[in-house]
Specification:
A hairpin with a 5-residue loop joins strand 3 and strand 4. The chain has one domain: Amino acid/polyamine transporter I (Up-down Bundle). It has about 500 residues and is mainly α. Helix 6 packs across helix 18. The termini are far apart. The N terminus is likely disordered. It is built from 22 helices and four strands.
C-alpha cells in the first residue's frame, strides 16, 4: 500500500509538471511517421481492378477458406458441441493439467478480442468502406472460426509446464516443437522467434495502443470535446490506465482470469442490450438497412477502389477484431484445464463467432440509425458509434464511455499476458524479466493514448496481420496431425456429424 501511495504521488507530481507541455502532440509527431512506414511495408499492395489490395489479406482469407473446407465446415457442425463443452465441461476439466477452466480461458480470450476495436474499429471501417464493410467484417469472422480451432488445439497439444506449475503455450511453442517433431527444426526455430517478436509488437499496438487511444478520445468527447479539460492531455488518461493495468497483470494468468471472467460477460451484456435498444428504435428501417449493407458489400457506390476496397477494409477490421490467424488467443487457451486439446479447439470457435456478433451489433447500430452518413475526418471512430447510440439514448455517450473503459481494460489485461509469454519465450522465465515487460507495456499505454487514431489503426493492423505469416505457415504443416486428433475425438465422444463428415 505504501508503495502504491508513493507511486500515485509521483504520478500527480508528473502531471503537474507536464501541464504546460503539449505531450500529446509531441508523441504523435515523433512516433506516427515510424508507424506509417511499418504499415506500408506489411501492407504491400498489388493492383486489382483499380484497387490496391494488400497481399497479406489474401494470405489470411485463403487460410480461412482452406481450413473451413479441410475440416468439413467445423464452424457449423461443431458449434453445438462447443457450447456443450463450455456448459458441461468433461470430467477432466478440473484436473491439474492447466491453470484456468475452459470457460475462464474463453472469457480471457474474449476479453482480448472484444475490445474497443469492436466499436471504434468497426465505425472507422464503415466510415471508410461504407455500410458494405459490415458484411465483410462478419464474413471474415465466420471464416476465422476454423483457423481459431486449429490454433487452440495446437496450443494445448504443445504447451509447456514450468517448474512453478504455470503453463506456457501458444504459437511460439507449437511452431518450435510441432515443426521439430516433423523434423523441420531448421524452420520451426526461426519462425517461432519471429512470431514472438511480432507478438510483442502486436501486443503493444493492437492489444494496447488502439484500446487506450479510443477510450481516451471518448472521454474527451463526453467532457466537452475541444473544450474538455483533457483536450491535448489525453496522455493523462493513459497514465491512469497504466497504473490500473499494472496492478492486475502483476498477479499472472490466475489474477487476469478472475478479472476477465467477471468483466467480459458484464461488458458484453451491457453493450448488447444498448445495441438492441437502438435497433429496436429503428425497427421500421431494418429491412432497408440490411438491403443497403448487402448491396454496398458487392456494389459500393461511394468507396474508392469499389468492391475490392470494401472487402479489404472489412477483412482488415475482421482480423484485427477476432485475431483469427494471428495466434494470439492460443496463448491463453494453452492454460485451459483439459487433457484433450481438441475440446479447447471447439471452445475457441465460440470466441470468434461472438466477436463477430459484437461487431455486427456496432455495424447495425451505425447503419440503422443513419449515423454512417455523418462520417467525417473528425468523426470516424468511437465518436461515430457514440452518435449512433445517442440518436436513441440521449445519455448514451456516458454509457459508451463506461463500456469503452471496460472493453479497453479487458483487452489491455489479456494482451499484457500474451506479450509476457512472447517476451519470456525469447528471454527466459523470471520475475524480473516479466516486470521489465510490464513496465514497457504500461509505457506504451501512455504513448497510445496520445497518438493520432489513423496512425494507431495503421500500425495496429500491420503488426496483428504480420503475426499471421509464421503462424499460418505452421498451421498448414500441422493440419494433418490435427485431423487425426479430431477423428479420434469425434469417435470417443460419439459426435455423429463429425464422424460422418470426417472419415
Amino acid at each position: 500500500m505504501k508503495k502504491l501511495l508513493l507511486l500515485l504521488s509521483m504520478l500527480m507530481f508528473n502531471i503537474q509538471q507536464a501541464s504546460a507541455m503539449n505531450i500529446d502532440k509531441i508523441m504523435d509527431e515523433k512516433i506516427a511517421p515510424i508507424s506509417d512506414k511499418i504499415a506500408g511495408l506489411i501492407f504491400y499492395p498489388i493492383h486489382i481492378c483499380g484497387s490496391q489490395v494488400p497481399l497479406i489479406i489474401f494470405w489470411i482469407l485463403i487460410a480461412g477458406i482452406f481450413f473451413t473446407i479441410y475440416y468439413k465446415g467445423i464452424s457449423i457442425w461443431g458449434f453445438k458441441h462447443a457450447i456443450d463443452v463450455v456448459a458441461k465441461p468433461p470430467e477432466d476439466s478440473h484436473s491439474k493439467f492447466g491453470e484456468v477452466s475452459s470457460f475462464q480461458a474463453l472469457a480471457t480470450a474474449l476479453s482480448g478480442t472484444i475490445g474497443i476495436g469492436s466499436i471504434a474499429g468497426v465505425a472507422i471501417s464503415i466510415s471508410i468502406g461504407g455500410p458494405g464493410a459490415a458484411f465483410w467484417i462478419f464474413a471474415g469472422a465466420l471464416l476465422g472460426m476454423s483457423i481459431k480451432f486449429v490454433e487452440a488445439t495446437l496450443a494445448v497439444k504443445y504447451r509447456k509446464f514450468n517448474l512453478d506449475g504455470s503453463v506456457s503455450g501458444g504459437p511460439m511453442h507449437y511452431i518450435a516443437h510441432g515443426l521439430t517433431k516433423k523434423k523441420m527444426r531448421w524452420l520451426g526455430q526461426p519462425l517461432s522467434v519471429i512470431f514472438a517478436i511480432l507478438c510483442i509488437g502486436g501486443g503493444i499496438t493492437g492489444g494496447n495502443m488502439i484500446q487506450i487511444n479510443q477510450t481516451a478520445h471518448q472521454i474527451v468527447f463526453i467532457t466537452g470535446g475541444t473544450n474538455s479539460f483533457l483536450h491535448g492531455y489525453t496522455w493523462v488518461v493513459g497514465l491512469v490506465a497504466a497504473v490500473l493495468i499494472g496492478l492486475v497483470i502483476v498477479g499472472g494468468i490466475k489474477s487476469i482470469a478472475k478479472v476477465t471472467t467477471v468483466l467480459t460477460p458484464t461488458m458484453c451484456l451491457l453493450y448488447i442490450v444498448s445495441g438492441l435498444i437502438v435497433i429496436g428504435a429503428n425497427f421500421m428501417h431494418i429491412p432497408h438497412a440490411i438491403m443497403l449493407i448487402l448491396r454496398e458489400a458487392f456494389h459500393p457506390t461511394a468507396v474508392a477502389g469499389g468492391v475490392f476496397g470494401t472487402i479489404i477494409i472489412g477483412l482488415r477490421r475482421s482480423v484485427q477484431s477476432n485475431e483469427a490467424g494471428t495466434g494470439a488467443a492460443a496463448i491463453v487457451y494453452a492454460t485451459a484445464q483439459t487433457k484433450e486439446p481438441v475440446s479447447q479447439g471447439f471452445v475457441a470457435l465460440l470466441e470468434t463467432f461472438l466477436t463477430g456478433v459484437l461487431c455486427l451489433f456496432t455495424s447495425f447500430a451505425i447503419v440503422f440509425s443513419g449515423a454512417c452518413t455523418q462520417a467525417t475526418k473528425e468523426i470516424s471512430g468511437i465518436e461515430l458509434a457514440s452518435n449512433a447510440f445517442e440518436s436513441v439514448i440521449s445519455f448514451f455517450p456516458i454509457i459508451l464511455s463506461i463500456i469503452a473503459v471496460l472493453f479497453a481494460l479487458s483487452t489491455l489485461i489479456s494482451w499484457a499476458y500474451y506479450g509476457q509469454k512472447a517476451w519470456t519465450f525469447l528471454l527466459g522465465e523470471g520475475k524480473k524479466r516479466v516486470l521489465a515487460f510490464n513496465l514497457i507495456y504500461c509505457l506504451f499505454i501512455i504513448i497510445g493514448s496520445a497518438m493520432n487514431v489513423r496512425s494507431v489503426i495503421e500500425i495496429t493492423d500491420a503488426m496483428m496481420m504480420a503475426m499471421s505469416i509464421p503462424n499460418i505457415i505452421t498451421l498448414y504443416i500441422l493440419a494433418p496431425d490435427i485431423m487425426k486428433d479430431l477423428k479420434a475425438y469425434c469417435h470417443k465422444h460419439d459426435l455423429k456429424i463429425g464422424k460422418f463428415l470426417i472419415k
